[in-house]
């Protein structure tokens, strides 16, 4: 029975969307961390000994000696409520994000948002006198998720989501309240976490600014990920057949590319406006297909 459950989870992970894969990875690391903690405690070893190797430090020397923590910290949670809240936010806002952007852009923004949050956290703890003598370790996907939330809110500011006891609230107000709370909390007990949230928010805003100018901030990250992934895959032998006549096709110019992308974005904006006014069910089969294909790019 255990084997069948594991096989089913593996299948769901392989066939699932990038959004579900991000959630699965976070949950798997959480479970592994808690299990490791239990094993260490059985041998009277404090579980905190492993945290400096996976969480983001506030001390520059520790960061220099553990630079990988800038990536690992954004997948680390060891509190049930912490991971539950973060994964719910990631799932809800990730679905809305994918209405306008691709899965690759979600992964890139998740990573860049976490990196921005980690660096702002490190900089703040060593720049502002308030944090003198205070040392900390930070973990959690919050900065990455806030980047996705803010990017989504700037892309679809009037898109409404239903909140318990509050009713339908526009994304722009949710993002605004979140940022204000973080600004007011930078001197709280979890000040470092709130500073990281602001770093993620700034990255999410910058992503949209560049996107509106025809630039994809996540492209370099995704190219690096593709190279790493393909580097571990065996390359199939491909037989190349050359046509006898040279093709008359030519590369697309920058102007043509921008015009094509603008037309595609205008079409998606029109579909999203229709969703806001009449709901997803009002879309035609062709519009649903167009929205789905845009999310896969």
UniProtKB/TrEMBL annotation:
Residue stretches of biased makeup (Basic and acidic residues):
249-258
Q: Enumerate the spans annotated as DUF6576 domain.
A: 254-293
List the record's Gene Ontology CC terms alphabetically.
membrane
Please report the record's description of how this protein sits within the membrane.
Answer: Multi-pass membrane protein
Which residue numbers delimit the Peptidase S54 rhomboid domain? 67-208
A Pfam family annotated for this chain is: DUF6576
Q: Which residues form a coiled coil?
A: none
Q: Where in the cell is it found?
A: Membrane
The region called Disordered is annotated at: 238-261
Keyword list, A-Z: Hydrolase, Membrane, Transmembrane, Transmembrane helix
Residues passing through the membrane, by range: 21-43, 80-101, 108-128, 134-154, 161-185, 191-209
For this UniProt entry, the molecular function terms from Gene Ontology, in alphabetical order, are: serine-type endopeptidase activity
**SUPFAM superfamilies recorded:** Rhomboid-like (SSF144091)
Q: Tell me the protein family, please.
A: Belongs to the peptidase S54 family.
For this entry, the protein name equals Uncharacterized protein
Q: Which species?
A: Barnesiella intestinihominis YIT 11860
């Amino acid at each position: 029975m255990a084997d069948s459950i594991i096989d089913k989870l593996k299948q769901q992970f392989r066939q699932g969307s990038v959004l579900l894969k991000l959630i699965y990875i976070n949950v798997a690391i959480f479970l592994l961390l808690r299990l490791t903690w239990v094993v260490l405690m059985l041998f009277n070893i404090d579980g905190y000994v492993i945290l400096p190797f996976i969480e983001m430090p506030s001390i520059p020397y520790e960061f220099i000696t553990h630079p990988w923590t800038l990536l690992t910290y954004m997948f680390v949670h060891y509190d049930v409520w912490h991971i539950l809240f973060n994964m719910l936010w990631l799932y809800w806002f990730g679905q809305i994000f994918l209405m306008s952007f691709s899965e690759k852009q979600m992964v890139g923004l998740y990573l860049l948002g976490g990196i921005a949050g980690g660096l702002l956290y490190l900089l703040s703890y060593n720049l502002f006198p308030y944090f003198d003598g205070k040392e900390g370790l930070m973990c959690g996907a919050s900065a990455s998720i806030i980047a996705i939330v803010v990017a989504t809110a700037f892309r679809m500011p009037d898109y409404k989501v239903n909140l318990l006891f509050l009713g339908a609230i526009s994304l722009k107000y949710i993002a605004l309240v979140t940022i204000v709370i973080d600004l007011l909390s930078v001197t709280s007990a979890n000040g470092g976490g709130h500073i990281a949230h602001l770093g993620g928010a700034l990255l999410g805003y910058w992503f949209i600014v560049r996107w509106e100018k025809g630039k994809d901030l996540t492209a370099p990250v995704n190219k690096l990920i593709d190279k790493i992934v393909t580097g571990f895959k065996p390359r199939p032998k491909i037989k190349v057949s050359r046509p006898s006549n040279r093709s008359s096709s030519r590369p697309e110019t920058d102007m043509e590319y921008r015009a094509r992308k603008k037309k595609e974005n205008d079409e998606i904006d029109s579909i999203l406006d229709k969703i806001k006014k009449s709901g997803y069910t009002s879309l035609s089969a062709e519009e649903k297909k167009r929205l789905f294909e845009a999310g896969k790019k």
